[in-house]
Amino acid sequence: MAGHAVAVTGLGLVTPAGIGVTRSWERVVAGDPTAEHDDALAGNPVDISCRVPDFAPSALLGGPTARRLDRFVQFALVAVREALADAGLDHRTWDGARVGVVLGCADGGPGTVEAEHRVLLADSPGAVSPLLLPKQLPNMLAGWVCIDIGATGPSLVVATACASGGTAVGLARDLLLADRCDVVVAGGSEAMVTPLVMAGFAQMGALSRRLDDPKTACRPFDVDRDGFVAGEGAGILVLERPADAAARGARVRAMVRGFGATADAHHMTQPDPAGRGVEAAMRAALRDADLGGADVDHVNAHGTGTPQGDLVEAAALRRVLGRRPLLTSTKGVTGHMFGAAGAVEAAFSVLAVQRDVVPPTAGLATLDPRVELAVPTTSTPARLDVALSTSMGFGGQNAALVVTAV
Description:
The chain has 406 residues and is of the alpha/beta class. The chain has two domains: 2-247, Peroxisomal Thiolase, Chain A, domain 1; 256-404, Peroxisomal Thiolase, Chain A, domain 1, CATH 3.40.47. It is built from 14 helices and 15 strands. The protein has helices at residues 21-30, 57-61, 63-67, 71-87, 110-122, 132-136, 140-149, 164-177, 195-204, 242-247, 276-288, 307-321, 331-334, 341-355; strands spanning 6-15, 18-19, 36-37, 48-49, 99-104, 155-158, 183-190, 233-240, 254-263, 298-300, 326-328, 357-358, 380-381, 386-393, 397-404. Strands 1, 2, 5, 6, 7, 8, 9, 10, 11, 14 and 15 form an eleven-stranded mixed β-sheet that branches. Strands 3-4 form a two-stranded antiparallel sheet. Strand 14 (386-393) and strand 15 (397-404) form a beta hairpin. The radius of gyration is 20 Å and the shape is globular.
């Protein structure tokens, strides 16, 4: 099992729960939901979201840099800088050719596209910014991170919808195990809370309509759940081989030991109702880690709060793990962060096993009896040696990560 493990030596978070690992984790453990009415969505059928609070890109990144970047890249750079500092790595002293960047993103920069489209309609093609494409293309997520930290190794942006962040962490681990890199900056970032994107989700019937009480709108695994609440932000993990981390005296927060990825091959937006794809991803991740379902202590589930998705996932978890693990969905606090979700939740899994605490599922009032798993609604101390983080996305794309204590 040790030969399959990579060390998590750094974390960086920019989430609706706060900027930075400490603030994000404290609010998640407190079970304090972040959803509220969003002025930017005024006039939309659903006008609630989970925004990153007090995000001032010019102050955090410098005005000239911030102005050249879409919000999804701004989030990532702030999180990457925190993660590298947390890992004790200085990009000015490393061999950039041995540093990779693998990041997940579902959509790129729709905010930039929408803003420039308004310019086009109101003025002329000549008024459109020459920064339109460099700001909104999904690959610029990794491109800008590489520029910022001097990484000249593999540079990849993974798009597996809402599984993107989890997929990116798994592929980053594979690069280390294949000796393609010595350090990989992995994770995901997303800024999809825009009027057009949210109108699309509303028209699909995917969003919670509990507009009278935003704080309780996202209700993962609750009998009265009616859809997800959209979020934004970034999650970054710095990954290294354990021997390399030990050689430089790095603190290791936890290990990523297993990864599984599958496709449902079923429907463009709905999960396979039998849950075969996500089940196969879980089983693949556990095989990869040389572990069984009975070894898992905690699951940070995809758990978006949609009527069908939560039940499909819960049934697959019961088949793979039994009823022992403590299940949570941190989306009750952060909302659904799309391509960043899997990475942020992997980071929360790292913190859970490092600190032996299961975060609550905020918004859960009455557990759907069909879930048949233990879902704490308050922060729960517990011995956590093995955690599983699961992600599911449009197109039937699934990812599962096994995180273990050191």
